[in-house]
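Give me structure tokens for this 173-residue protein.
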Amino acid sequence: MVAGTVQVLRCETRMLDKVNLGCGPNAPSNWLNVDGSWNAWFANHPYLRTALQAVGVIKPNLGAQWKVRPLVHDLTTPLPFQTNTISAIYGSHVLEHLYHADAQRLLVECRRVLKPGGATRLLVSDLRSMTIEYSGRKNGNSSSSNGEPSAADRLKRKTGIPKSSPTEWESCF
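Here you go.
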């Protein structure tokens, strides 16, 4: 990390001591939003995204209109914050995207940067309820006759597993 970037982070954490991990495009503006995705990176470089779309290198992604400019950071590496500087950490559906060891390291990092008396709220998918729904509504691998998605497709959507047809998920931007 560049020294200037560290200085900016120190200034931002003084102003914003609430961190939203894996924020996604609909993040609150009064939090320090952290996301490691390509879409987050492009949110900080909108002209480059537009140029790459114009020449056909990447496809337009109408669903990823970012409301904030997130801090782009890989959550499998140490958090770029000083110890005991963050009052609140929030993450929704982020841990389940990490390997177990990486998730454990992230939790240790959250504890390190959290101020004494601070709060952490991490939400994860309820796999048990999804598998119960899947078992109870199982109807094969294709859409049912009434047009509802199959149980397998509903489970894939809830867990973030890509659709089985490459043409439906080939563009990662």
